[in-house]
Amino acid sequence: MMGLVTCFPDRWMLNPDTTGTDPMPTHLLARYTRHNFLYIKLYKKLQPEDSVFSVPAPGKVKAVLLNKTGAVSMDVSWETPESNSTCITGYRVYWGDNSSAATTNNTLHYRIDDLEACTEYKVSVAAVAEQTGIDTLFSTSVSNETTTDVATPGKVGNLTTREVTATSLNISWLPTTHQACITGYTVCWDSKCTNIRDQHFLIQALLPCTEYSVWVAAVADTSSSDSVDIKNNTSVAVPGPVIDLQATNTTSQTVDMIWTQPRTNWTCVKEYKVCWKDGSTAQTCTITDNTSYTITHLMAATNYSVQVGALNAVGELSTLSDISIFTSTLPLAPHTPVTPVIIAVMVILTAGISATVLYMHCKGILL
Fold first, then answer.
1. 225-230: long-range pairs with CB below 8 Å, 24+
2. Which regions span the lipid bilayer (predicted)?
3. CATH topology for 243-326?
4. Which residues of the chain have pLDDT under 50?
């Protein structure tokens, strides 16, 4: 007789008067045992000489070993089953919640690549019995578990600024490679650093009108990625009022004004506006880049009101600081001492008496 399956020893005879069905019910078998067997799909009228053999499932493999060969790969090895190993045609290896699988050609080892670092994997191995014309049989799988090694995370990606104000920057980013190894992120700016777990961070207490560079790096247990940086300028704000406004070196026509930059939003100051007026004339204003200015062409002995404010780049003016000054009076003409000048000497002789007469001139006055 010709057997339809040749690698299993237990042979079964079929009733020659029956026609095969799909699948073949057990009552069509002439003999019955407790062995595991596979129903054969037959699509022809069975002949008396046809026979079918029982197909027991392979036994379980032994000693599944996992040898990590890096953060993203491992070698899997096992031993041949002790039972029903005659018709084994290969082995099926499963990992990643059985979502990944590979079949070996009857070898007792397999290398798994492209794993994720810092990740626990369950690896299962099952023996396979595959024969033409019948369904494939698998043994009960045998499993082992391990966690891949730590790897340095890749640089963060898509580092962007979500919102900018005069005093804050809100940034966000995305992880790239070896995400399972990331324990947090380091964010640095303006000589300051902080460690966080989120993928976004609000940097506060910044100066307005100021450029900041921000660096972000992914951190693992024993290493960190290269940092990625982004530059942003905080928004423009109105400067605070100038402080310590003073008048010095006041004369009848000039006065020196000095002041100190604002305490608040001083980084937004572009220039200063200086204005002055007395009680009767129109106000006069000028712009300066300095924290001092000399006002000229004033009137003597006059009260003036002087105001100074800070301007930002868009022309917004701070609250004005003011001060009153009083110019000096005009000085009196200087007094010049009179020096007589002798212009003539006359000698008069009278009755034997002599006398000398001096003629002196002082500023046109004859003395």
1. 225/152, 225/153, 225/154, 225/155, 225/156, 226/155, 227/155, 227/186, 227/188, 228/155, 228/156, 228/157, 228/159, 228/173, 229/159, 230/159, 230/160, 230/161, 230/171
2. 341-360
3. Immunoglobulin-like (2.60.40)
4. 1-6, 8-53, 345, 347, 349-350, 358, 361-367
pTM passes above 0.85? no
What is the model's pLDDT at position 365? 43
274 vs 63: CA distance, rounded Å: 90
Work out the number of other CB atoms within 10 angstroms of the CB of residue 40: 21
- Structure-token pair, residue 44: 């022809």
Q: What CATH number should be reported for the domain whose range is 157-233? A: 2.60.40.10
Are 356 and 347 spatial neighbours (Cβ–Cβ below 8 Å)? Answer: yes
Strand-pair category, 243-248 with 228-233:
unpaired
SS3 call for 326: strand
Q: What gap in Å lies between CA 255 and CA 260, rounded to an integer?
A: 17
Q: What is the pLDDT of residue 329?
A: 85
User: Can you give the residue ranges of every domain in the chain?
Assistant: 62-147, 157-233, 243-326
Note the pLDDT tens digit of each residue in 238-249: 999 999 999 999
The correct answer on CATH 3.30.70.20 for the domain covering 62-147 is no
Nearest CA among 21, 61, 72 for reference residue 45: 21
Displacement of CA 166 from its chain's centroid (Å): 19
The DSSP call for residue 207 is P
| Cα dist from 110 to 62, 90, 105, whole Å | 15, 11, 10
* CB-based burial, 134-172: b 16+ in 10 Å, e otherwise: beebebebbeeebebbbbbbbbbeebeeeebebbebebb
Supply 187's token pair.
């964010």
Strands 137-138, 142-147: pairing kind: unpaired
Would you say 181 and 118 are in contact if contact means Cβ atoms under 8 Å apart?
yes
Residue 239: other Cβ atoms inside 10 A: 27
The H or E element containing residue 67 is strand 62-68
| Eight-state DSSP code of residue 224 | B
